[in-house]
Amino acid sequence: MKILVTGGAGFIGSAVVRHILTSSDDTVINVDKLTYAGNKESIPAELNSERYIFEQVDICDAVAIKRVFEQHQPNVIMHLAAESHVDRSIDGPGEFIQTNVVGTYTLLEAARAYWQGLAQDQKSSFIFHHISTDEVYGDLPHPNELPEGTELPLFTEETPYAPSSPYSSSKASSDHLVRAWQRTYGMPTVVTNCSNNYGPYHFPEKLVPHIILNALAGKALPVYGDGSQIRDWLFVEDHARALYLVAKSGKVGETYNIGGHNEKRNLQVVETICDLLDELAPHKPEGINFYRELITFVKDRPGHDARYAIDASKIQLELGWAPVETFESGIRKTVLWYLDNKQWWQRVLSGAYQLDRLGDK
User: How many Å apart are CA 249 and CA 120, to the nearest integer?
Assistant: First the structure.
């Protein structure tokens, strides 16, 4: 099987590529523009083989995308390419509209033309898998807002969309486009919505790696507001397994929510990382006795969602997937990875990788 993965040099995309290459005989065509968060070094050199093809292509480039389809003849599309950082979307929403909405439209049209030209037996095995986020649903009531003993609600596949940020609005728009192409044109599509991911190869601007690397450097550990916002945390390798399973076995036209069953307050996440670093990196920066001393509360993000939490029972019942990692086991693996892979994140932080990438163009 040939699988075209967009955004395969990004955090979740690279986890998907690594999973496919190490767990199957499938071929991966990795299509990535290599923006600031894309990193070819997230695919270890030992995985480069005849089953792995990299194409530096912008999904908004219709001519280039058409050429990729015609040249590589994929059976499956896994669309992960997206701008995904909420703070950046607040400061500059235009890039999010361009990549997440226009880019998805461009990819859908290229995929539709390609799919319509396939022989009937090839059409029946084709699938366009769109990977999205739980943030499209808006947020859920915080436990502090509900009477004690109230059962906490969860996002299901039927939860109405109510996005709060430019980022989540752009992802909601792309979800609607994918479903419209399935209903209007009959193109076989499936959509997944995931909770917050964490794990190895995560770009340092996101919460977990940002806290790890700031702590190691003795810098402030910024926490929005009082840190009470709740997220469901999903280890990225568990997510990659789920996405590949949906691409192979998901039912056309369906949506599957993918969650980690690990609701944690943001402050709890930061404190857990600090405690792990006390254990695993005891030689602290000068003047620091405990990493928790670096926690600093900062002005809250505009429109900050209070709580996300996913009901992942559908994918478990229908496809047999469940997360392997608890938050405790996954976050320990993550901290250990950053401690053991300084060269990767130091090159990212220094800008050396970006300079090398630009030199390759």
Answer: 19
Structure tokens at 244: 């590949």
164 part of a folded domain: yes
CA 210 to chain centre: 16
Count of structural domains within the chain: 1
Boundaries of domain holding 210: 2-298+308-360
> Given the structure tokens 């006390």, which residue do they identify?
278
Tally Cβ neighbours within 10 Å of residue 75: 16
- Mean per-residue pLDDT pooled into runs of 10, the chain (361 residues): 97 98 98 93 93 97 98 98 88 94 98 97 95 96 89 96 95 98 98 98 94 97 96 98 98 98 96 98 95 97 90 98 97 98 93 59 45
For the annotated catalytic residues, the residue numbers are 134-135, 167
Q: Is 187 exposed, middle or buried (0-12, 13-18, 19+ CB in 10 A)?
A: buried
Neighbours of 54 (CB within 10 A): 17
Q: Does some domain include residue 226?
A: yes
Q: How far is CA 8 from CA 11, 127, 232, 244, 280, in A?
A: 8, 17, 23, 13, 31
pTM: predicted TM-score of the whole model, two decimal places: 0.95
